Amino acid sequence: MMDTRYNVYFAGEVLAGQDLAKVRQGIGQLFKANEAMVNKLFNGRMHMVKRDCDKPTALKYKQAMEKVGARPVIKTADPADASAPPQSKPAASPAAAPQPVEPPPAAPPQTATERIAALAGAPDAGISQPAPPSAPAADEDGVTLAPPQSDVLRPEERTVTEARDIDTGTLAVDAAATRLSEPSSAAPAAPDTSHLSMGDAGEEIPTLSADETPLAPDTDDLDLSPEGTDFADCATPEAEAPDLDLSSIVLAPEGSAVLEEEFRRTETATAPDTDHIALKD
């Protein structure tokens, strides 16, 4: 089974919270691109920066671009992009002898910087293309992100709701303001309380049962104080004065300034102007 291959694209998008000028500078340093090449990479169109690479290589590009604040787009590579099927050639005539053809010299492999420079310097028709709406982008965990407005569930995962044929021929709509139910019956009459009366305050209710046992405290050791007692023995004793050492404290002479010079208020109150005020006769 052939391993999945990936293409890495860049459409000039920056990550959330990143400064565009710093991202442009980082992309230029990452790919060693000049100002013109950076402008082309940020022209809003999709540019391929790495073609037909394995997953580790695609992740390296992704991490490097995200480190400078750029948002890469990773898509599954189409096998036709990496190797096109050989075209059929017409059969050679038996009379014609094959001519030896010298193979062209193999071109040295390009670095990533050289490929970016070639892509940025090429015309737009050859290096940029609008992003296909149906192509998902794969992240480093292999999870794909569907395009906007795509269906979340596959057809086999959706719940199919069958329409029911309900017979409503026996139903009718009542007129406006029609009651939904019959009014309730009238409330029963109030009970007769003419034979009831209120007892006097403090009167015991003979029919009221007492479940609690009445208290009977022992008061033999208690007595009343003589009349005129001031209960001085119950008062809280006064607190003793603290033993403070005031030998290092002296009083300033009368009329001395309390505040030091730096804390004194120097503003002088100004009398209000009363020249415009006069008393009437």
TrEMBL record:
Listed Low complexity bias regions:
75-99, 181-191
Origin superkingdom: Bacteria
Region of interest (Disordered), residue spans: 70-247, 260-281
Species lineage = Bacteria, Pseudomonadati, Pseudomonadota, Gammaproteobacteria, Cellvibrionales
User: What organism is the protein native to?
Assistant: Halioglobus japonicus
User: What is the name of this protein?
Assistant: Uncharacterized protein
**Spans of biased composition, class Basic and acidic residues?**
153-167, 261-281
